Every structure is written in C-alpha cells, then in structure tokens.
Amino acid sequence: MSRKKLLMGNWKMNNTVEETLQFASKVNESSLVKDAESKGVILAIAPTYLSLQALKQNIKGVYVSAQDCHYAKSGAYTSSVSVDMLKEIGVNWSIIGHSEKRQYEAESDFSCNRKIRALLKASCKAVYCVGESLKEYEEGITKDIILSQVTVGLQNISCEDAKNIIIAYEPVWSIGTGKNASSEIAQDICCYIRSIVEKIFNKEVASEMLILYGGSVKPENIHNYLTCPDVDGALVGGASLKVESFKALVENI
Ligand code: PEP
User: Fold this and answer.
1) If you measure from the C-alpha of residue 12 to the centroid of ligand 1, how many angstroms do you get, rounded to a whole number?
2) What is the position in ligand 1's atom list of the atom closest to the CA of 170?
3) How far apart are CA 53 and CA 64, in angstroms?
4) Ligand 1: which residue has its CA nearest to atom 8?
5) What residues have CB less than 8 Å from 223, skipping those under 6 apart?
6) What's the CA-to-centroid distance between 115 and ligand 1, angstroms?
7) Which of 6, 10, 11, 246 best tests ligand 1's pocket when mutated (most atoms within 8 Å of CB)?
8) Do the Cβ atoms of 90 and 83 come closer than 8 Å?
9) CA dihedral 53, 58, 59, 65 (to 10 degrees)
C-alpha cells in the first residue's frame, strides 16, 4: 500500500498574525504547493491559536492545524479552545500530546486520549505525538515508553475513527536540540509503532496510517528520513518557520 507523504510545520509560540500573513502570501506566490503536489507530499502548518484564522483564510493548498485542543465541548476551562471552536473557523486538524505540553504542562497519555477522541468524534484529524526522554533513551526503554503512550493514547477508538489519526514519533532529546535521531532509529521506532497500531486496530489501519518522524529535521537531513519505508513524513519545528526553509524541505524530499 502506498501512503502519501506529509510535511507538517509546528510553529509553537512563534510568528505573529502579521508574520503569518506574510508567510501565507509568500507561499501563495511561490511554487511550493505545486512542487509538493508533484512529489505526492501533503503540507500542513500548525500556528498559534491567534494565527489560525488568518492562515486558514489566506493560505492555499496547505492544511491548517491547531497545536492542541480541549476534550470538552465548552465550559470552565480557562485558556482552552474546543474542537467545535476550531471547526467554526474551518480548522479540522490538531496536534495532540506534543512533548512540550507533556514536559511543561503535565499532559498525560490519558488526557491525550480524551482530546483525540473529541477530535475523531467531530471527524477531525489528530496528530498524536509520542517519544521518549533522553533519560529513557539512555536507559534503553524507548519501546516500553512508546508502547504505553500509543496504547493509552489510542484506547477506546474504533477502526473507522482511527483512519483520522496520524502519529508523530518525536524523541524528546532530538527536539530543537540539533541532535536528530538517525534514520535507522526513526525507521525502527516508526515500524514498531505501526506494529502496535496493527495490534490495537488491524492490518488495514496500520498499513494506511501516516507515521512521521520529528526532531531537528532540516532541509539537509529530511531526505534520509523520507526514504525509510515506515516514515511517512516529518513534523518540523524550527525549519518550518520561514518560507525559504519550508520550501527547501519540500525540495529535498
Ligand atoms: C517539534 O516541535 O515538533 C519539532 C520537531 O521541533 P524541531 O524541528 O525544531 O526539533
């Protein structure tokens, strides 16, 4: 089964609304989307909540994603945004469980599961991030960590709904550090994740699911990952912030 490739930018807390608008117009004026299409690459960008609407209304040919969402429909959850609120402005994707949410805001696999189920119930896409810390990597327990993150995060989900899940393997020690995991590690863990997905759901879901690698992906190294059979794309932070490097990522796929 041949899967499409996905290049997804995670802007974290970067790019103002003004900068987002400039990014969108540069993309629209360039051949970036056409180049990506010709390579069978889907593009997505996750700006801050504040820039979602501006990006959605102004960029063409790029999916717009939130970086997080709440599992409840509405209520007393200060600072949060619900799936319905995202849908109201045409945003049908969200990243869930990014390691910075796990590290700094105590996001758990259980809360990720609630958010993923809220997204799937609304027919939205969930980009679920998993990955081990440096300590866990050094202790040699990467696969144990991945197994529990995937198993808990994806519990109580039907095979039908699972088709809207994308998984991003992002070793915490490689995010924003310039210490990217080797393509052998990325392939090994993405393949392992696919085997867990097969056990939870079935062969069809596993063979269709997009599994990305993330962590210090740059134009210079993206090709190494994208040639791995189980790596279907990349989740990119720093190198996705400027049109020039986003374009270079596409060119080098
Ligand atoms: C990320 O934020 O998901 C990420 C992978 O960041 P960077 O590419 O900057 O390491």
Assistant:
1) 9
2) 5
3) 9
4) 237
5) 252, 253
6) 21
7) 10
8) no
9) 0
Task: Give the pLDDT mean for 213-240.
Answer: 96
Residue 70 designated active-site: no
Residue with token string 């202790």:
139
Answer yes or no: is pLDDT of 110 > 90: yes
What is the DSSP secondary structure assignment for residue 94, as one 8-state letter? E
3-class DSSP state for residue 127? strand
Please work out, in degrees rounded to the nearest 5, the angle formed at the alpha carbon of residue 142 by the alpha carbons of 238 and 146.
Answer: 80
98 is catalytic: yes
Q: In which element (H, E) is residue 125 found?
A: strand 125-130
Tell me which DSSP letter residue 157 carries. Answer: -
For residue 142, count CB atoms less than 10 angstroms from its CB and return exposed for 0-12, middle for 13-18, buried for 19 or more: buried
Q: Six-digit token pair at 129?
A: 């991030």
What span, in angstroms and rounded, lies between the C-alpha atoms of 247 and 156? 38
- DSSP structure class, residue 239: G
pLDDT at residue 36, as a whole number: 97
pLDDT at 101: 96
Would you say how long the chain is, in residues?
A: 253
